[in-house]
């Protein structure tokens, strides 16, 4: 599925963000050394260590969204190891001004990348592998790690 074919114009996206919870997937990425996190360059959670994720497109399954987001945001293929279930995330900031809070119904997944050569897509300034939680780890990422049976940070 071509992700560009699912682009929503800014005005329509602002209406959605203002009025509707967004169904999304978030990827907790394991590596042999630890957990892979990206430094966010945009809202929400700008400047914090976070995990890749994004909305589920209409007509797309959650697992198809996992594959697309891994390819789009990281440039890799992944294998799903564990489904963490649904999480409710409400952010006070959004990438579009004037919309108020941004509400996600996020589905968390632990995944293994099939390569460790990540290519950031502009939403993350850097990717690093962590064995211990960084100081600027977002509380929503902490919730995924606590829920995971197959991934952990000290």
Automatic annotation (TrEMBL):
SUPFAM superfamilies given in the database record: Nudix
Cofactors that this protein relies on: Mg(2+)
Pfam families tied to this protein: NUDIX
Domain Nudix hydrolase: 18-150
Gene Ontology terms for molecular function: hydrolase activity
InterPro entries: NUDIX_hydrolase-like_dom_sf, NUDIX_hydrolase_dom
Key words of the record: Hydrolase, Magnesium
Protein's name in the database: NUDIX domain-containing protein
């Amino acid at each position: 599925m071509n992700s560009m074919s699912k682009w929503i114009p800014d005005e329509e996206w602002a209406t959605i963000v203002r009025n509707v919870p967004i169904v999304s997937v978030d990827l907790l990425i394991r590596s042999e050394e630890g957990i892979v996190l990206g430094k966010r360059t945009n809202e929400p959670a700008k400047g914090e260590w976070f995990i890749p994720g994004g909305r589920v497109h209409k007509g797309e399954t959650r697992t198809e969204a996992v594959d697309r987001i891994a390819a789009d945001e990281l440039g890799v293929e992944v294998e799903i190891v564990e489904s963490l279930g649904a999480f409710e995330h409400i952010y006070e900031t959004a990438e579009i001004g004037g919309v108020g809070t941004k509400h996600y119904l996020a589905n968390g997944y632990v995944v293994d990348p099939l390569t460790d050569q990540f290519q950031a897509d502009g939403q993350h300034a850097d990717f690093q592998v962590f064995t211990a939680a960084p100081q600027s780890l977002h509380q929503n990422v902490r919730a995924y790690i606590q829920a995971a049976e197959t991934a952990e940070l000290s």
